[in-house]
Amino acid sequence: MVYNPRGETETAAAMTTTTNRETDEFAVLWLQAGSCGGCTMSVLERGGAGWLEELRRFGIRLLWHPSLSEETGAEARAILARIESGEDRLDALVIEGSILRGPEGTGRYDMLAGTGRSKLDWVRALAPLAGHCVAIGSCAAFGGVPAGAPDPTDACGLQYTASEAGGALGADYRSRAGLPVVNVAGCAPHPGWIMETLAALSLRRLTAADVDGFGRPRLFADHLAHHGCSRNEFYEFKASAEDFAERGCLMEHLGCKATQAVGDCNQRAWNGGGSCTQAGSTCIACTSPGFEATRGFHHTPKIGGIPVGLPLDMPKAWFVALAALSKSATPARVRENARSDRVARGPAPSSDKRSGSEKRTGAEKAK
């Protein structure tokens, strides 16, 4: 059931005589709950001219952001009051960070300073008024790191606690536009995922068909982090690294979950270049609900020598058969490079495919 402490699910939607309803700007309120602030840090990298300029170009108006806006104190409280009363239109309520429900469901572990009210209370009051509700990061989407055991704060996401529907707003919550919470998952999400989601919403181009079963936009959730990985040649031949200094595939021994995690992380650059696997670390499936409960991020659990976590779109029997075939056909170059911290052996062209500069005539060989 959708929680609305004022008991008015339709009142704000019906209000039309408000200060910003006459404009075409897409009005966004961004609140930070149980958060490290990393999602904001991520999106600030977005755009050649900066994120705030990109928002402006898409006609998106940031009503208030606790870290970026100039308004503080009474000015910030006035903004929230106008939104809650319906005086100002709210096109998107954006939440960064877990909702802390403790102690005992009061939410008082995380208060919005100066208001005397918890973030839990504010979220439940504002979400029914919003055209869209957007969770930025896996904390806001599923509970994330604050929800990891032990969790005295009773942290949850807006509409999920790990993979269980419910969260702070309830499984049945729908925004004024009729959508569930849009979960831009990730720890932190790629800046492109955040901006492109807000842009799609502002252009009315994101529908229920454009999100997956966990409310994640398909613009990134229809991909796997594995796609585009620079280590894919080693994966194909199951030439695996056994140490993080080595160049081989990280899945078999070192806990990489890129074949199981949604996201186009290896297909678009982070901060100008790079990704987790390109930096030498493993994919920890941070876009997945409950990723924080993983025991031993850098160890691959196995049963009978076979990794427990296998690619999402491949039957286990196929994977085992293909892995055995691939290993038997691994080129010596790939096998050697997989266990090295640099390219130990480059590809050697066959004699009939050498370039003209490499070929020598019989007379040259005689000399």
What would CATH call the homologous superfamily of the largest domain? NADH:ubiquinone oxidoreductase-like, 20kDa subunit
Radius of gyration: 25 Å
How does CATH name the architecture of the largest domain? 3-Layer(aba) Sandwich
Describe the sheet with the most strands. 5 strands, parallel
> Considering DSSP H and I runs of 4 or more, what fraction of the residues is helical?
25-40%
Structure in words:
The protein has 367 residues and is of the alpha/beta class. It has 2 domains: 11-221, 3-Layer(aba) Sandwich (Rossmann fold), CATH 3.40.50; 224-340, Cytochrome-c3 hydrogenase, C-terminal domain (Cytochrome-c3 Hydrogenase, Chain A, domain 2, Irregular). The chain contains 13 helices and 13 strands. It has helices at residues 11-14, 38-43, 51-57, 73-85, 119-126, 138-142, 191-202, 218-221, 232-236, 251-254, 316-328, 332-338, 362-366; strands at 26-32, 60-64, 92-96, 99-100, 111-112, 117-118, 132-136, 155-156, 160-161, 164-165, 182-184, 302-303, 306-307. Strands 2-1-3-7-11 form a 5-stranded parallel beta sheet. β9 (160-161) and β10 form a beta hairpin. The longest helix has 13 residues, at 73-85. The chain is elongated and about 70 Å long. The protein starts with 10 loop residues before the first helix and ends with a helix.
